[in-house]
Amino acid sequence: MIAYAPPMRALVFASLDTEPQDERPPDFPFWEHVTQRRYAGPTVLYLGGGYAMTARHVGMGEIQLRDVMHKPVRDSKRSLLNENGSAADVMIFELDRNAVLPDLPILPIASEPLQPGEDVLLVGFGRGRGTVIEYDIDGQTRFGFSWSKKGEKRWGTNRVSSNSEILSQSNFMTRALSLRFDGPFAPDTTRYETHAAIGDSGGGVFVQRDGIWKLAAMMISIGGEARSPRSSTVYGDMTFAADLTYYRDEILRWTRPICSNERDDDGDDLIDFPADPGCDSASDRNEWEANPFEAKSLWLATTAALGAGWLIIYLGRRGLRSQRGTSTPNSTRPSSAD
Ligand SMILES: [Ca+2]
Ligand SMILES: [Ca+2]
Ligand SMILES: [Ca+2]
């Protein structure tokens, strides 16, 4: 039996009726943040500020953002860790600093965990629905969907089944949530019910709360009946996504510019752009009002102007130090400021 089998469709949908016809989800601001590894690779999420995230089993590579290919910084790869020190199947890497980064906003990451029953948006580059296949398990005939040969960027929906999965695969242990692939008439199904397939690893799971979209999870695995044919999807299969709310602090620590890291870095009780006036933008890497180089130059100019005969006193950690000032700027420069 051959069903409608469009080529190059990503994410698996039950039928044409449940596939979204819009290329992008309506009113969704982060479509361009979802990209893929070069050479038709799996999915990569651009976090903004020059950082990217994907599954650890995908690995880093060149990614395309707004028609420009960006190379990763060698040795910038960093796996996220669990509290017990084991590695999760989530990694971040940095994009080449010499390249001009696209003007895309910092991708907000949800701080509250997804709850069972909460609706989510999935975006990924994985395989799509191919032909319908028929097979027997224990004498019962079952149906499923084989996968298309290639992936394409697509979006769909699902609803959280569980938010407390711990996925243990090879060397990785990952806090995850699960999404069940329900048939079109199942009570719990969603409008564009979809399931992940090969290539969707690294794909985004987004949630809209109080009208604001945030990244909440990242697709990493699928699971289902072990005796089902390989490279196929059946109703009841599960998509697993790393719970990024659980790893949020570590992601922020490694990827956010000073002015969007949710910390008060200069001790003035004002946090980040736009609250801290020292921040010119969310991508600013300095919360201080004036840059330290300018402040130092000003100080040198002042001491130089004092001229000969003045006593310059440095207040170091080891106590007072003194030095005879002279008329040249060089001799008034502190030689050790410990
Ligand atoms: Ca579902
Ligand atoms: Ca900050
Ligand atoms: Ca501050």
Structure description:
By secondary structure, the protein is mostly beta strands. The protein folds into two domains: 12-252, Beta Barrel (Thrombin, subunit H); 297-332, no CATH class. It has helices at residues 248-255, 292-306, 329-332; strands at residues 12-13, 34-36, 43-48, 51-54, 63-65, 68-70, 78-81, 87-94, 119-124, 127-137, 140-151, 154-169, 172-180, 194-195, 204-209, 212-223, 232-233, 238-243, 311-316, 319-324. A six-stranded antiparallel beta barrel has the order 9-12-13-18-16-15. A hairpin with a 2-residue loop joins strand 5 (63-65) and strand 6 (68-70). The termini are far apart. Mean pLDDT is 84; it is low at 1-9, 294-306 and 312-338. One calcium ion is lined by residues 158-159, 179-180, 182, 188-189, 193.
Bound molecules: calcium ion
Name the beta content range.
35-45%
Q: Share of helix among residues?
A: under 10%
Determine the structural class based on helices, strands and strand pairing: mainly beta
Q: Which topology of the largest domain does CATH recognise?
A: Thrombin, subunit H
The CATH architecture of the largest domain is Beta Barrel
Level-1 CATH class name of the largest domain: Mainly Beta
- The 3D shape can be described as elongated
SSE order, one letter for each helix or strand:
EEEEEEEEEEEEEEEEEEHHEEH
> Whole-number radius of gyration?
26 Å
Number of domains: 2
Distance N to C terminus:
79 Å
The tally of helices reads 3
| Low-confidence runs | 1-9, 294-306, 312-338
Task: Tell me the major beta sheet.
Answer: 6 strands, antiparallel, barrel
Round the mean pLDDT to the nearest integer and report it.
84
Number of strands: 20
Strand arrangement, largest sheet?
9-12-13-18-16-15
